[in-house]
What does this fold into?
Amino acid sequence: MNPERRARILATLGPASSTPEQIRALVDAGANVFRLNFSHGSHEDHAERYRIIRQIEQDVGRPIGILMDLQGPKLRVGKIAGGKVVLQPGQAFRLGLDPAEGSAQRANLPHPEIFAALEDGTDLLLDDGKLRLRVERHGPDFAETTVVVGGPLSDRKGVNVPGVILPISPLTPKDRADLSFGLSLGVDWVALSFVQRPEDIVEARGLIGDQAWIMAKLEKPAAIEHLDAIIDQADGIMVARGDLGVELPPQRVPVLQQRIVRHARAAGKPVVVATQMLESMITAPVPTRAEASDVATAVYSGADAVMLSAESASGQYPVEAVTIMANIIREVEADPSWRANLDATHSPAEANIPDAICCALRRVAGLLEPAATVAYTASGFSALRASRERPTTPILALTPEQRTARRLALAWGVRPVHFPEQLRESSEMIRCATNAAEQSGLAQAGDTLIVIAGLPFGRSGSTNLLHIAQVPPAGGRQP
It folds into this structure.
């Protein structure tokens, strides 16, 4: 991992990236975390990819995070007679629970929860927003609509209900089975689809507990109305721009992306910008200039990570996509205006001890220009709190918990190191911190380090120590 690169890369695995050789090439190109998309593939497929990642993790000697992405509820129309009909603008069209095959006048919509949440005048979007219907009249088992934007409608196309909170759990029976399987493997993050309100995160937390961190995918406009409450409940946030863009005008998506990143950064929660970042590289060896600018915009805004979907999962150039994404990140982070923008968008500290310590960390780093910040952390809190400051130094996170190290692989500027030695005294911690910084190549004899931790060791959220240390000469003693 190049210590100069602060933003991380989340790469999706799939048919184009499933062998040990392919996955190792993605790691060497710069992938920090891998996404297992449970909308596709069998449990056996994901288990084999998980096994390969853990073997590569041992080979490269650094933690690699694994995120499982749950499919979530998929609202779809039923079968259409003949496979397809064409809807004309202005015509009447009925949606209902009747399971009979659809026609040019009606279609099955086997989701009573949609009808329960509708209001007259509500718009329904079909096939990723290509068709738009307006509800004229509805009941508990039907909706009479007028076609606003027509076009072909075929079997099993998706349905979106923008601006309406649907009384649906984000966890379907399939999701619950997938979740149980993923947790048994030992995934580090669970991405929760179809999040509409903070209660959705609470429901998932009841099943997941502390076995993994939860990433809320913001893909429903309703979620934006509860943005801060969702961020408060989740461990991380994903800006799922593809689905979000179906239910919102395209001009609103960039504005919401910036807002979500800003709020997640203020809360100190890792935030990922996802979907169509290098979309043309599914079939081309280089991205468009607009796509390169899109990735750069996310990096300039201070996002923790940027994500590749089909580009690395099923595209023709998965390694090239990761390589180019890493190069874009490095180029942006070499621009002086990148640092100026991070400083300008920095969130003020709150009146508590962890904030005070990390606020001091940022100020000391700016004054002394140390080689690195070392955060000793069991839960990951100290490292995330340091990352929130977006300091000028790399953050070396020493943790006795391997699962914490893997989770932190997604966090901005954090280089996690699994450090199984149990420490009892702060002097031991300083010694270990200087040794680890030197061994990792972040520091050498005589360099200054900032060390933060929580005392007593092992208590989550107790960051209360800041120490300035120097790396001693070989055979020397810690000053």
